[in-house]
Design a protein that fits this description.
The protein has 265 residues and is mostly helical. It has ten helices and four strands, in the order ααααααββββαααα. The protein binds zinc ion.
Amino acid sequence: MNNAKYQPNLVERAGQWLRFMIERPSVLYEPEDEAAWGRCSLCAWESQEKIERCALCGWPIHLRGERLQRELSKLIRRALLRDTRLVARLKDEIPWLPDDVVCRQFTGPLAWLDAVWRRAGKPPGRPYDPARHWRIVAAMEMLMQTHAPSPTEEGEPLFDGDIQGTRPARAGELKLVPCGYGLMLREAVGVLSGKLFTPGPIPSRRDGIARPVLTGELLNSIGRALQKQLGYRLGREEVFRSWRWGRQLRGSAPARWSGSRVRAR
Ligand SMILES: [Zn+2]
């Protein structure tokens, strides 16, 4: 493992090993008895004689248990010094494995990985970036807008919520006029996350709020333009996350003061 020619690939190799031991934890287990030493820790093929490598899968028979754990511990520590995002990236590659399941493998010399693994943030490689989330929030609001404030003329009939009725407006008072694409939340998330809408007219809103006639072609082209502006491809989860975060910050002063971060869920 310390061979100099592997040095440039240190991070990559450490990542492969880490994934390997998570997905094939049997290589980490210490043999239970004498007989287990002749059994391949990877494929469980059993040899009658003493051999170096498994005749079936080629795995080095003695590379297992605590000896392997110690080697891996050193390798991963060195790799993490070079690339601190290693664990976070790997975590993103195998999102279907919950932390508790993965961390069960981190015992003995590898126990320190438990905390590193749980701490590693998602999404990987992307530090907390409020500007990025606000851009998503702003795009969502633009897509979902149904009304916009507009100044009234003197004497124009204006609905007043306080009296639950209409009265003549004073000049310059604001009224809400229908404006914007009026997308529903799910549609807006679809547009931003690159969903392809079927060409042709999009059905109107189920809640009856008026909106302009929209077509699949239009939504697809808006989606492409927005993604280009944002400069990266968005996932549905990320759009939802940013949207919820934005609404929370707008709606709650304590959340603003505490500098609340975008949560995974
Ligand atoms: Zn084998």
